[in-house]
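Honest question from a wet-lab person: if I give you the sequences of every part of a complex, can you actually get the arrangement of the whole thing, not just the pieces? Trying it with mine:
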Amino acid sequence: MSDLNRAAPRIVACPNGPLLVRGELDLVTPEGDPIERKRRTIALCRCGVSSIKPFCDGTHKAIGFTTTE
Amino acid sequence: MALSETLTKQGTFPTPPFSARGPLSVRLLDLLSAAPDGDPHLIPLADEALQAATDIVHDDDIQLALFLLYGLHYGSVVETDDAWEWHPSLIALRLHLEAAFEAELRRVVPVPALPEPSSAAVAAALFALTGEDSGPSLSRYIAAKANREQLAEFLVHRSIYTLKEADPHSWAIPRLTGRAKAAMVEIQSDEYGGGRPERMHATIFAGMMRGLGLDDRYGSYVDQVPAVTLASLNMMSMFGLNRRLRGAIAGHLAAFEMTSSIPCGLYSRGFRRNGFGQDVTWYFDEHVEADAVHEQIAGRDLAGSLAEDEPSLLPDILFGAAACLTVDGWAGAHILDAWTAGNSALRVPLVTGAAASAPASGSES
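Yes, you can. This is the full assembly:
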C-alpha cells in the first residue's frame, strides 16, 4: 500500500526547465530550517535566475536556458 | 457568518446586474426571468443574430448569449429556475451558436505545424508556440506605466474568467482518462487551493478585487467588458463542455499556463509600484510560482500524454493552444490600445463610488 504523503520523492528533470519534484522530501536552508512548501508538486530553479529561488518562476524561458549538451 | 465563510463564499445578485446587447440576449434574459413554460423556438432568432454578425468572436449579442447559456451550468450568472440548465430549447440554441463560434475560431486561429505525437515533442512545440513574441505587451505596460484606475480596469476584465478560475477546464476531467486525467487533476487541485478554500485561486482573486474597492460578486462588471472578453471565457467553456473538444481544452490550459508566470510577475510589480501591498499582490505572486509548476505538468503530462494516448487529438491540442493565444491576445490588445490612446478600456465606465458602497462579499446570496 503506498501512502501518497510518504511516497519517495521523484524528481523530473524538465528539458530546458526546472526540476519538478513530487513526493515527500525535506527542503531546508543550510542551517536546516524548513523552507515553506506551498504546494504538493514544486518546481526548483535550475537556470539560476529565478527571483523566488529555490523555486522556479519561469524566467528560464526568457533567458533561453537550455539543458541540451 | 464565520470569518472563513465570509472570505470564501462568493456573493450573487438576485437579478442580473447587467444589460442585454441585442435581440437574442434580450429574449434570453426575458426567458430566464421566469420558470420554463413550453419550448421556445430560438433558432430563427439565433440565425438572425448570426447573419447580422460581421465577426462572431467580437459580436456583443452572440457572445453575451453564449455567456448566459454557459452561465446556467456554472451558476452565479443569472439566478433562475434550475430547470433551464438542461432545457432542450436552450441546449439546442447553445449547440447552434457553438457550431458557428467554433467554425469562426477554426477559420481565424493560425495553427502551427504539427509535431510528432510524443510527449516531449508536443511539450516542446507548445513551449515554442507560447514563447513567440507577439508584439506590445499588456504586462509590460502594467509593470511600468498603469495607474490605479487602469489596474482596476484590468481586474474588471480579468474577473469574468478569474472569479471562476479553473472551472472551465474542470469540465474536462471526466472527459479525459489515464495520464492526461491525472495531470489535469494535479493542476486543478492546486488551482482549488489543495484542500484549503482560502487558498483557492478564485478566492484570492476576489480578495484582490476588494483590495481595489471593486465588487467581487460574479457578474458585477459584465456590462463593462467587450464581447472579446466574454468570448475568451465562452471558448474555454465550449472546449471543456464538449468531449470531442478535449484535445482543445488540454491545449488551451497548456498555453494558458505557459503564458502566465512571467506576466504575473510583471502585474505584481505594477500593483506594488502603485503602493499596493502583499495582501493585494498575493494573487499574482502565487501564480508566478504555481504556474511555473503547472506549465511543466500541462505541457508534458497533460497535452503530451494525451497526444501519445490519442494521436488523433493532436491537431485539436495545437488548435486549443493557438486559440488561447489568439483570443486572449485580442482581449489584451483591446485594453492596451485603449490605454495607449488615452482612453478607458471599459465598454461602460465604472460608476464612481459604486464599489465603495457595494455590500461586502457574501452578504447577499
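Two things worth pointing out. Chain A has a mean pLDDT of 90. Chain A has no helices and three strands.
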